Amino acid sequence: MPVNVAINGYGTIGKRVADAVMKQPDMKLVGVAKTSPNYEAFIAHRKGIKIYVPQQSIKKFDEVGIPVAGTIEDLIKAADIIVDATPNGVGAQYKLIYQQLQKNAIFQGGEKAEIADASFSALCNYNEALGKKYIRVVSCNTTALLRTICAINKVSKVEKVRATIVRRAADQKEVKKGPINSLVPDPALVPSHHAKDVNSVIRNLDIVTMAVIAPTTLMHMHFINITLRDRVEKKDALSVLENTPRIVLVSSKYGAEATAELVEVARDLRRDRNDIPEVMVFSDSVYVKDNEVMFMYAVHQESIVVPENIDAIRASMRLMSAEDSIRITNESLGILK
Ligand code: NAD
Q: Is residue 167 within 8 Å of 214, Cβ to Cβ?
């Protein structure tokens, strides 16, 4: 029997997770919650997705001719598990309803870590999340940091991480966010919140992060410096990055050295929405000095957490092992490896 999954909050993350759920052999999308009858609701309807809305919004949807399957509470009741992709902080309000109706839920990185029984990164702590009723998939930047840190940890134990994050200012659909011509420390305070978020998964890691917002919508870029217990060879660092799922090495020999070019690759590959759920590590940037490994990578903020949401559903419902879940998710979503 497939697991019945509901998506509450059908925006940037929610609509991608909904599409991903529809591609899983062991999941069924029961419907999505929408609050306003906008273009996203209209397209969801065109795709045959059932739409559930707040009681007071039914009339608004009727007026524009988008059929409503029921209220958001009906949707939650019909599901075994809810992926909550509502805006930051709204998930905490919905948690009370999930608890009342005794439903499992996956929250996003915009919620505080305390909302969940475990913060989640498929490559780092899938087993810790097994059977947990409430799981929080960490933010896009934290998901990328954790993937790279847990990969490099296989070469030698990671003792210290220092990272600088250049954040995209807004997602492509966001018309009211900026800056459009400035670099803005995010915040002008060290460490940035990303370090604390990494510590919600790897508790005692010595990590300091700094972040700046840049006027771009395409991707984030990270500059990471990882100190290991042992002296390592560059080839070993490259090999582990090469062989870790959801991390792709990008060589300058193909001429894709900028986020705009990576997005163009996604377009040429006819990726859905030009998504790049893999961490894109620039292989020429990998530099090793004694026990320090440094490199640069790009992060597609809108899609990187999508495979992790699918794995978090399987972990919460105890459907299968980490290895099997990561493999099935990757194959179904066409992730490069
Ligand atoms: P979004 O604004 O694109 O989507 C949120 C959706 O929730 C919208 O469709 C909105 O109409 C809907 N919504 C608002 N109030 C609601 C309510 N009360 N009930 C039901 N639906 C409601 O936001 P997003 O970017 O998808 O972010 C969602 C979560 O994912 C946040 O926690 C965010 O921090 C996290 N996240 C975002 C990104 C990103 O780059 N966009 C990346 C990783 C994680």
A: yes
pLDDT at residue 276, rounded to an integer: 98
CATH no. for residue 326?
3.40.50.720
109 lines ligand 1 (CB under 6 A): yes
Of 123, 122, 120, the C-alpha closest to 150 is 123
Secondary structure of residue 315 in the 3-state scheme: helix
Query: For residue 120, what pLDDT is reported?
Result: 98
The confidence score (pLDDT) of residue 224 equals 99
Q: Range of 23's domain?
A: 3-138+305-333
- Residue 131 sits in the same domain as residue 144: no
Model confidence pLDDT, tens digit, residues 112-135: 999 999 999 999 999 999 999 999
CATH number for the domain spanning 283: value is 3.30.360.10
Q: Of 33, 41, 140, 151, which is the active-site residue?
A: 140
Please tell me the residue having the least CA distance from ligand 1 atom 14.
86
CB 223 within 8 A of CB 148: no
- Whole-number Å distance between alpha carbons of 95 and 39: 27
Structural domain count, the chain: 2
- Best residue among 7, 8, 12 to mutate for probing ligand 1's pocket (most ligand atoms within 8 Å of CB) is 12
- Closest C-alpha to 133, from 110, 90, 103: 103
The interface predicted TM-score of the complex, written ipTM, equals 0.99
Residue nearest to atom 15 of ligand 1 (CA): 86
Does residue 13 have its Cβ closer than 6 Å to ligand 1?
yes
Q: Which atom of ligand 1 is nearest to the CA of 137?
A: 44
Residue 201 Cα to ligand 1 middle (Å): 22
Residues in the chain predicted with pLDDT less than 50, given as ranges, are: none
